[in-house]
Amino acid sequence: MTRTLGIASPLTVSSMGLGCMGMSEFYGAPDEASGLDTIRRALDLGITLLDTADMYGPFTNERLVGRAIAGRRDEVQLATKFGNKRGPSGERLGIDGSPEYVRAACDASLQRLGVDHIDLYYQHRVDPSVPIEETVGAMAELVAAGKVRHLGLSEASASTIRRAHAVHPITALQTEYSLFTRDLEDEILPTIRELGIGLVPYSPLGRGILTGRLTAESMAHDGDARASRYFPRFQGEALEANLRLVAQVEAIAARKGVTPGQIALAWVLAQGEDIVPIPGTKRVVYLEENAAALNVELTPDELAALEAAVPRGAVVGSRYGDMSHIDQG
């Protein structure tokens, strides 16, 4: 199953992708062997859009993806990102959208991935100190040089997207979208559809909460960033309220004979053929569960029931504790 992202610069990809971030950082201890197995199993299942970034690890996730796809590069649509600068010890060094950094970051990613081109290259976060025209101009130079095939933005506002697209066709916008996060429906989704830009939702399972497997106890182990104040939806009373919403999704899924995660992914997939979610996992069993959502078709009544179970505005807590890194245009 495939879908096409973008119209002016189209990229055909698998209908669902794989987010690789958690294999290296943020959601518990890294597990390289499991990550390699998961990526290779994804390719076997026809899930060929792989999403990584230089800052994941930092730097280790791109190397992991590169090892996993060695010998199978022609099967893969490879997406990575730049802009969130980190040092070798993981320290955060801010956002950099300068043309010089764009060029240096791309070369470094190509080396770590062990490839000669990147299929979809995203600006991970918009740098408010650099005009988007300058950043995208430098990205366009990478396309002309053959290092990059298609351009993307992540967490960009509608006005920034318009300005970027005027410089060079933007193939995809990556941003958070799920039953739990729908604010982009107001302005951003209409804008990208007007411009012919595809949508690649990250966290389509609400950072895992929509699987029905997440509890305060399950996040208590070392290294799970969701347990920190950086993610208000997973704290105290907010988590309790949000888990009550998940219970309603679980009930709908049980009536259909699928898992809550599968019905949540099916909801995202049903929002349009221009949408390609990238649920992340580092375990083959969860990858296979997610992939099966491609075969789950929701009736109009089921879609309505899900929207009634999780009404817009019902989720408690912001998606990040600090939204300053999200472009407000």
TrEMBL record:
Family matches, as SUPFAM superfamilies: NAD(P)-linked oxidoreductase (SSF51430)
InterPro entries, A to Z: Aldo-Keto_reductase, NAD(P)_OxRdtase_dom_sf, NADP_OxRdtase_dom
Keyword entries, A-Z: Oxidoreductase
UniProt keyword Transferase, yes or no: no
Protein name: Aldo/keto reductase
EC number: 1.1.1.-
Domain NADP-dependent oxidoreductase: 16-309
Pfam families: Aldo_ket_red (PF00248)
MF terms (GO), sorted A to Z: oxidoreductase activity
Highest taxon, organism lineage: Bacteria
Record flagged with keyword Oxidoreductase: yes
Coiled-coil stretches: none
Organism: Sinomonas terricola
